Amino acid sequence: MIVANTAVLIGTIMGVSLGADLAWVWEKVLQATWETLYMVAISTGLSYVFGLPLGVILVTTGEGHILENKGFNRILGAFINAVRSIPFIIFLILVIPFTRLLVGTSIGTVASMVPLTLAAIPFVARMVETSLKEIDWGLIEAALSMGANAWQVITKVLLPEARASIVLGVAITTINLVGYSAMAGIVGGGGLGTLAYYYGYQRYEDLVMWVTVIVLIAFVQCVQMAGDKWAAKITNQRR
Amino acid sequence: MIEISNLTKVYHTLHQDIVALEDVNLSVKRGEIFGIIGLSGAGKSTLIRCINMLEKPTRGTIAVDGQDISSLNKRELRLARQKIGMIFQQFNLLSSRTVFDNVMFPLEIANTPLPQARQRVSELLELVGIADKARIYPDQLSGGQKQRVGIARALANDPKLLLSDEATSALDPDTTRSILKLLKDINSQLDLTILLITHDMNVIKQICDRVAVISESRIVEVGDVISIFSNPGTPTSQSFIRAIVQKDAPDEYIESLINRHRDQYSCLVRVSFIGASAGEPVISAMIKQHGIDANILYGNIDRVKDVPFGHLTLELIGDQAAVDQSMGFLRSNGLEVEVIS
Fold it and tell me: Which domains does chain A have, with CATH numbers?
């Protein structure tokens, strides 16, 4: 409701005639917001299903680490860099055949989740890597000195110790995916991106454009705030 | 308990090989507290990490309790490590776990059944004196309390050997004393062998039975703490001991005294004593028997583990013959006498 009221306010300031338009815009925006939320949430979740283990592997196979394997580590790192260096808008088109294979179409919210997830996996892997590398080596050494195996080091030391930092990474990934989802929207991915593009850009509906922008700003703020709060809660619990 | 033979550790870097340990031979007896002292970079940290294979030796063998640690496979090594406790300078407690769960950690690793593990953790927290802190997180503890948790954790799986990696180096002197006392207590209560590394001779002095001095990757001296204190054989041990034991009055002071009694014969001597003779009135007996004067210029008495140990700088004034006889008298009473001038 706050969003709608803000829209009225902004609209009034900009001198846009509202009235009957508003109900229609509101319905469209609500629908698109839901699609975006759904797309981003599922993609973020899936990207962590694959990205988290990948990040763990990336760290632990590194030089001097518990599962050191320099060759494998170098190849994995290069592969992740390669995927990350492709701009998302190109990546989106590049994976269309795979998307079709997987979900039968390349249009719509479900189809968008494929490139979103695939693009986010290497990003998540790097985020997780950064979080895990913050952990003092002394803690790992202490666990090894007690006779811990690699799995125990990962599940009892690395991941729990990095929890707050990983949570902040989830917020950053989610926000990134909001941006990516808008790009996916331009090629028919659905959500706020599609709405803004069709109505705002192609049909010069300023109101739709502005409401979309406001929803996006509100959404990103909320995600970041939730991430910060959650991470702070984890850290404070330990103090 | 520990037999180290011909241990060499070389780090290969891109441009050069760095020798961290060279041909180290060392034997630590069951039940003793053995100290290794050296400056930073001397190789002591590498040495202690070789004992539980956190560092792989380049050459040589290490046997712990008769088992050749260096030849074990991964699984065997993990089991062996469960029986070797280790404590650290930076404590290395998990900030994501409470004190209780930190001590629980090694028991989880060893797959100890939960009720039994809980019982064990409670006992250990009691033993190290922090049972009231079980439910809080390490961030809320002082350094000394953290090290107590570290010690409880290291003892969880009933080790035969405890490795201490500069465990008191991050603590203030009072806390250091209380942690050392705790180590000494568990050493005798649990019949636990302790191998510690330190750069602080006070630690050696307070709790060690024997000490090895490491310098530039080599063990340069090994012996009973008391004999190294009274007679350090290498420049490294001498400098460590000088850092904590003031043997003499300041040089300027001694110089100002030389030739002060021109009218009478006098002699400046340094007397060292160890053990029992520290308690006897040898100096006053000397004065009475030989009819000389003794001017005490400087004195210092200390304890090494439980043995008194000290130095006196004396000016002996009187007949030349009487002074010489007095020195003989001191020597015959088991004191070491060194003439300064």
Answer: 2-237 (1.10.3720.10)
Structure tokens given for A29: 């925006």
Query: In the predicted model, what is the mean pLDDT of chain B?
Result: 88
Domains and CATH numbers, chain B: 2-244 (3.40.50.300), 251-339 (3.30.70.260)
Task: Please report which confidence band the pLDDT of residue B79 belongs to, taking 50, 70 and 90 as the band edges.
Answer: very high
User: Residue B214: CB partners within 8 Å, gap ≥ 6?
Assistant: B24, B36, B37, B38, B42, B43, B44, B47, B220
- Position A229 scores a pLDDT of 95
Task: Provide ipTM, 2 decimals.
Answer: 0.82
Nearest to B50 by CA among B41, B63, B38, B39: B63
**In the predicted structure, residue A138 carries a pLDDT above the cut 60:** yes
Give the nearest chain B residue to A161 (CA atoms).
B96
pLDDT score at B279: 59
Contact A36, A193 (CB under 8 A): yes
Residues 113-152 of A with CB under 8 A from B: 136, 138-139, 141-149, 152
Q: Which pLDDT tens digit goes with each residue over A25-60?
A: 888 888 999 999 999 999 999 999 999 999 999 999
| Per-residue pLDDT at A11 exceeds 80 | no
Residues B109/A155, Cβ–Cβ less than 8 Å: no
Instruction: Tell me if B81 and A143 make a contact (CB, 8 A cut-off).
Output: no
Among candidate residues B319, B326, B217, the one with its CA nearest the CA of residue B271: B326
Assess contact for B319 and B336: CB atoms under 8 A.
no
Other beta carbons within 10 angstroms of residue B68's beta carbon come to 12
d(CA B305, CA B204): 8
pLDDT of residue B46: 93
pLDDT of residue A152: 96
Contact B177, B147 (CB under 8 A): no
**Cα distance from N-terminal residue to C-terminal residue, chain A:** 38
**DSSP-assigned states of every residue in A45-87:** HHHHHHHHHHHHHHHHTSTTSTT--HHHHHHHHHHHHHHHHS-
Question: Chain A residues with CB inside 8 Å of B140's CB?
Answer: 239
Nearest 5°: the CA angle A6, A12, A14 is 105
**Predicted TM-score of the model (pTM):** 0.83
- Chain B CA closest to residue A137: B92
Q: How confident is the model at residue B234 (pLDDT cuts 50, 70, 90)?
A: confident
Burial class (CB in 10 A: 0-12, 13-18, 19+), B261: middle
